[in-house]
UniProtKB/TrEMBL annotation:
GO terms for molecular function: 2-methylcitrate synthase activity; citrate synthase activity. PROSITE patterns: CITRATE_SYNTHASE. It catalyses: oxaloacetate + acetyl-CoA + H2O = citrate + CoA + H(+). InterPro entries: 2-MeCitrate/Citrate_synth_II, Citrate_synth-like_lrg_a-sub, Citrate_synth-like_sm_a-sub, Citrate_synthase, Citrate_synthase_AS, Citrate_synthase_bac-typ, Citrate_synthase_sf. This is Citrate synthase. The keyword RNA-binding does not apply. The lineage of its organism: Bacteria, Bacillati, Actinomycetota, Actinomycetes, Micrococcales. Pathway: Carbohydrate metabolism; tricarboxylic acid cycle. It comes from Agromyces aurantiacus.
Length: 378
């Protein structure tokens, strides 16, 4: 008998392209539930957090598992304020980068520089990782704000200690503190972007952590994953779509052509949510506030028309990037800065996952089914 006669045929491997539907681990950080269209951070509905807390409290919650009490919040805010200023070595590194590069390349480089200058970079204890996470949380707004300013030919605006995270972020970006209504809408966006279970960038961070690499490397990798337009890059891409369409009356012909050429419409669709993204109503309400504040009904008309038309034709709903993109535009951010804003928020979720992965680690290493040429010899 030959070997082939005695060997049972190998069953076809169960390949889940894109890991769709695959549960790879547990997490206590957030729960995305497409059946109930809900999202919980450490048990709290994200809508409640957006209505009743500030982003600093949510960051604390994601890392510690509980909302801070008054004393804990005061201490955390003081630490965040102490770490806000753009470090000279980080500014020097940013200044070396051409303004033609994408701002995601800048924020990725800045995290590398911050990591390279941290003597405890390779200490993976929960305490050391938490300190690194807090450092990045405090440092990233100045990186994003300065990058936008230098592209506009402007200099650094130093942080103000009397302002909370979001007000100070906007102050460093624009040199003035916007009205509370704008700060609140921005803070809501930071809360909504903070965490979303095993999305592509968070999974990247967990893969890197699983090799016992350091937190900064995990965040750098996560930034790379977030940059793509199928993930975080979509908030920027939504604005390009709005610019391309121009006005609500052009939605129908634009969509006819886009769908005929099999284009993906950015800001619509989601791997997990199939009946709408749990965060969209809250972000849409924030966008509506901004539309009213800036008196830009044209933005609402275009946004509503595209959503109405696309949902009617394809049954695919908007994701968080759809209302966030125009919201950041109205606040005054340049379009290519939108995904770095997402980074400033998601760094909280990424680092919470790094800490969780490190605490219960297994090397992440899936299998592949070889479909190349049969064995041959030189
Ligand atoms: C914060 C975030 O990261 S949210 C996601 C942001 N990304 C985007 O907005 C980019 C646009 N959206 C997409 O590309 C997709 O919806 C994704 C990548 C987010 C999820 O995609 P998947 O779960 O892999 O589904 P997939 O891309 O296979 O789509 C399934 C079907 O719906 C279609 N589809 C899904 N989204 C879109 C879209 N935005 N525009 C047009 N068609 C779409 C696909 O073409 C596909 O059709 P087919 O079965 O006829 O080929
Ligand atoms: O969960 C996902 O796949 C993408 C997403 O919405 C996010 O990361 O916020």
């Amino acid at each position: 008998m030959t070997d082939t006669a005695t060997t049972a045929p190998t069953p076809a491997p169960d390949i889940r392209k894109g890991l769709a539907g695959v549960v790879v681990d547990t997490t206590a950080i957030s729960k995305v539930n497409p059946e109930t269209n809900s999202l919980l951070y450490r048990g709290y509905p994200v809508q409640e957090l957006a209505a009743a807390t500030r982003f600093e409290e949510v960051a604390y919650l994601l890392w510690h598992g509980e909302l801070p009490d008054a004393a804990e919040l005061a201490a955390f805010r003081a630490a965040e304020r102490a770490g806000r200023a753009l470090e000279p070595n980080v500014k020097a590194a940013i200044d070396l980068l051409p303004t033609t590069c994408h701002p995601m390349d800048v924020v990725r480089t800045a995290v590398s520089v911050i990591g390279a200058s941290d003597p405890a970079a390779d200490d993976a204890s929960p305490e050391a990782n938490l300190a690194k996470a807090e450092r990045l949380f405090a440092a990233l707004p100045a990186v994003v704000a300065y990058d936008q300013r230098r592209r506009r030919g402007l200099g650094v605006v130093p942080p103000r200690d009397d302002l909370d995270y979001s007000a100070n972020f906007l102050y460093m970006a624009f040199g003035e503190v916007p009205d509370p209504v704008v700060v609140d809408a921005f803070d809501v966006s930071m809360i909504l972007y903070a965490e979303h279970s095993f999305n592509a960038s968070t999974f990247t961070a967990r893969v890197i952590t699983s090799t016992l690499s350091d937190l900064y490397s995990a965040v750098v990798g996560a930034i790379g994953a977030l940059k793509g337009p199928l993930h975080g890059g979509a908030n920027e891409a939504v604005m390009h779509v709005f610019d391309e369409i121009g006005s609500a009356d052009r939605v129908v012909p634009w969509l006819d052509e886009a769908l005929a050429s099999k284009r993906k419409i950015m800001g619509f669709g989601h791997r997990v949510y199939k009946n709408g993204d749990s965060r969209v109503p809250t972000m849409k309400a924030a966008l509506d506030t901004l539309i009213a504040y800036y008196d830009r009904p044209d933005v609402a008309e275009l946004s509503d028309a595209l959503e109405r038309e696309f949902v009617a034709r394809k049954g695919i709903h908007p994701n968080l990037d759809y209302p966030s993109g125009p919201a950041y535009h109205l606040i005054g951010f340049d379009t290519e800065m939108f995904t770095p804003l997402f980074v400033a928020s998601r760094v909280t979720g990424w680092t919470a996952h790094v800490i969780e992965q490190a605490a219960s680690n297994a090397l992440i290493r899936p299998l592949s089914a070889y479909d190349g040429v049969d064995e041959r010899h030189v």
